[in-house]
Amino acid sequence: MEEISDLISQFQTESEKNQLQLVPQLVARGESGLEVLMNFLHSRQSEPVNLVMGKAYQALLQTDNPKVQEFLKTYFPTGVVPLKSERNIDYQPLQQLLAKQDFLGADVLTLQKLCEIAGEAAIKRKWLYFTEAENLPKTDLSTLDQLWLIYSEGKFGFSVQRQIWLSLGQDFAQLWYKIGWKSGNNWTRYPKDFTWDLTAPKGHLPLSNQLRGVRVIASIFAHPVWSTDSN
């Protein structure tokens, strides 16, 4: 069994991909491993959030260690992803669902939040028109995407789906198969046949935008948020 000092050394120097794999090993070491993860998060508080920070936060959140819970409450009371909104939308409940990997609950709430951003008419009908999707504020769409991306180890999110779509020559018919929304001639049945964990195909979630056809997701993929660095 590796010494804790070796694990710490690896965690500090390895690539992001390898760091993600080391997080569960550090948790398995108990108090000393949890201390490493807390120090890691604390030292990066002012830095842009990345996948390892999301994984470390998730791992700490799942422990029943009082010291760890006090640390999270003090330094990351809402989570590690900044919850920016131009419409004063509260994304904390979504952050908590995703941090706990309740992807079904998070998907339902994501659609609710998209409707909240779009306004009263969308809230009432409980789904978006493609014209509403076109006009979503960049800040809010970026926040939603970041939440899905960070708490799925980079596997889920609108930007992930969009990258796959671009790699397929913007062919939606191919995209549905690639991300597991269609098999043979059959659409994946909601919710029971979707995969609500990280064993799902890359880009599998969120899916609520797709249930009303292609126009909404096409509007999201064409949104100006993806062509600018200023979120």
From TrEMBL:
<feature type="domain" description="GUN4 N-terminal ARM-like repeat">
    <location>
        <begin position="3"/>
        <end position="77"/>
    </location>
</feature>
<dbReference type="InterPro" id="IPR008629">
    <property type="entry name" value="GUN4-like"/>
</dbReference>
<feature type="domain" description="GUN4-like">
    <location>
        <begin position="84"/>
        <end position="224"/>
    </location>
</feature>
<protein>
    <submittedName>
        <fullName>GUN4 domain protein</fullName>
    </submittedName>
</protein>
<dbReference type="InterPro" id="IPR032192">
    <property type="entry name" value="GUN4_N"/>
</dbReference>
<dbReference type="GO" id="GO:0030288">
    <property type="term" value="C:outer membrane-bounded periplasmic space"/>
</dbReference>
<dbReference type="InterPro" id="IPR037215">
    <property type="entry name" value="GUN4-like_sf"/>
</dbReference>
<dbReference type="Pfam" id="PF16416">
    <property type="entry name" value="GUN4_N"/>
</dbReference>
<dbReference type="GO" id="GO:0046906">
    <property type="term" value="F:tetrapyrrole binding"/>
</dbReference>
<dbReference type="Pfam" id="PF05419">
    <property type="entry name" value="GUN4"/>
</dbReference>
<dbReference type="InterPro" id="IPR016024">
    <property type="entry name" value="ARM-type_fold"/>
</dbReference>
